[in-house]
Amino acid sequence: MRSSSRAARGVPALALALLLGAVAVPAGTAAENAPTPRAETSPTGFAAVAALGQNGTTGGAGGPTVTATTTEQFLEYIDTTGPLVIRVQGTIDITSKQGVRPNKTIVGVGSSAVVNGGGLDFYRSYNVIVRNLRFTNAEDDAVNIGQESHHIWIDHNEFVAPVDGAVDIVRGSQYVTVSWNWFNKTDKSMLLGHSDANGSQDAGKLKVSVHHNFFDGSRQRHPRVRFGEPVHVYNNYYKGNAIYGVASTMDAGVLVEGNYFDAVPHPCYSAGGYDESGPGRLVQRDNVFAGAGVGACETNGTVTEPRTYYSYALDPAADVPALVRAGAGVGKIGT
């Protein structure tokens, strides 16, 4: 089933209480006036879909729980075979991109867990949860999901100053959810599909849900998509994104739904492609476009409905800025 550009009626979201009481929020918010964010204990969107032998994404559930306080411990645990819940405490300094084996939950303790200097790499990995971590100064990508990895949930993290991408999802990966993250002044925030020449591997894959993220002064790729369909971009807060919001290229199919674009000069590219990439398909509905200099969302064609894969609750776009400010980033979930 494919959707048209006509607006669809949003489904009211069920408000759930935060697992923690008083929490910090990104600067500029009166937390007491904000709607109550959901504090999911399991993913929604594509990471929750039963496929490829996985009944959703459960991470290290059923395995032992360990705590990493040093780089050596952290690298040992993420390279361990079998399910494992890895609690990260304090600052972990790593270099380059470090591989993560399947069936892991990597979760920061409290609001001060940091992975600094390097990033996480998924190579034919699956069933991994990454939550409540602040990624700083990655010398390449902070999170790279590649080589047909699947069922990955990237949730409630903060990304600061990676040299390349904050979150890249490439080379046939799919069934990924990126939710409730704070992209704090990042440049290349999120790439889906690494090149125009990789259609044979990426077409029909790159099924990704991007929801309730705070793209805070970040510049581009929120996300930039090649080939993937459907890519579901919903209930995100875009604030002051200098280059563009979402780009659908190379016949990708992207649904942009229920987002709030604040002072974004180019919310969406599609019909004209972007840079050297050819046109993609993009449907927008129920979004808010506000603030100085906000432009139009360029639409093109039709897109496979995400509801053919999963159900979801759509928050009203007008509520998204307060909701996402209150809920996105670290220190917002029970660990």
TrEMBL record:
Residues 1-27 form the signal peptide. Keywords: Carbohydrate metabolism, Lyase, Polysaccharide degradation, Secreted, Signal. Belongs to the polysaccharide lyase 1 family. The keyword Lyase applies. Residues 61-267 form the Pectate lyase domain. It comes from the Bacteria. SUPFAM superfamilies: Pectin lyase-like. This is Pectate trisaccharide-lyase. The lineage of its organism: Bacteria, Bacillati, Actinomycetota, Actinomycetes, Kitasatosporales. It is found in: Secreted.
